[in-house]
Amino acid sequence: MMPLRGKRILLGVSGSVAAYKAVEILRGLQRRGADVQVAMTEVATKFVSTLTFEALSHRKVHTELFPESGDPDVVHVRVADWPDLMVVAPATANLIGKLANGLADDLLTCTLLAGDCPLVVAPAMESSMYGHPAVQKNLQHLRGRGVHLVDPEEGDLASGHSGIGRLADPEIIVTAVADAFKTSDDFTGKRIVITAGRTEEDIDPVRFITNRSTGKMGYAVAERAMRRGAEVILVSGPTNLDAPVGAKVIPVRTVSEMQKATGEVFDKADALIMTAAVLDFRPETVAPQKIKKSADGLSLNLIANHDFLVDLGAEKRQRIVVGFAMETENGLANARRKLKEKHLDLIVLNDLTVAGAGFGVDTNVVTLLESEGEPISLPKLSKLEVADRILDRLESYWAG
Ligand code: CTP
Question: Which of 27, 185, 204, 361 could bond to 287 as cystine, CB 3.0-4.6 Å?
Fold first, then answer.
């Protein structure tokens, strides 16, 4: 899919160590069909040479407001008139400060001020700077002006410290760019039930068993389905995520709660997307009081939970049912078996052993399997983009 085919994008690179990641962003934009022009601040050119970007973009990189070669045009106005969208990645605290306050003392900041197109900004800096009230105020101001901000991630920073401030994954930034163009309503009139996150099963009043699912994949599907005009019912296990505005959220904790809530809304749905990590086992008994410690340790007897997707799949009739398969070995064979046993239209195979896939991260690496046709292995994509690929399949079923 080439969501950015024919789009002209100006990629602004400012002076952060993360400037090297802009190379991957450039490639990601090109892979989606965009024509990319790069503009850099002077400091950025100390981190990555203009030559790298020139070789990859096949365009001269803009760095100077008044190039000595005597360009008769006012460069920044010409550069600003060209793109359909501008993205600054990485954006330093200094660049964000200038942008928020209308300062323009070099080619990139002048271009950003002169431009009249959507703007995506991906900050990257030390946590202490990112958390500073001045930076937060500037970001808030930009958000209010309609700038699409791509929040930085937590992790190791150039200083050796760890915290929030790392530039978002290049795939996430590329998706944010594609998103900024997106207006679609292909799911208007469709009601989609999405289960998301982990489930919990109690051992006693203070302890429970659970799994590592954070709900990111399911919430991404919910966000995308909403954006495409669907009515979304999100049956969600415990999570720290904010549900997309407008989704109807049904919070649940245990498998039996999830089964009941999903069963109730399934009847009137057009599709069920079962991303939730449903626990296969639960303690046979839940102790009514806290279990006291004992030198002998404790053995838990776990019994099987009911796999309610099997039932819903069997009674789906015209509804579309999508399942997920999380595997650590024999992925394709296991997913194929689950597709059949659970009467699914589509199964999304996650291999937990692949880098960039699985729990807690914003990206995923999945294979889509249907009863007919070859498996489709997708590259590492943001979870939002994976969500769109899944929804694209639904769209094609509905389109007949
Ligand atoms: N699922 C379910 N109820 C369960 C277990 C799983 O509805 N008790 C659903 C999941 O939400 C997912 C699909 O079934 O959409 C596959 O889940 P997965 O954990 O990969 O597989 P299992 O069927 O549990 O098989 P196994 O544990 O052998 O991998």
Answer: 204
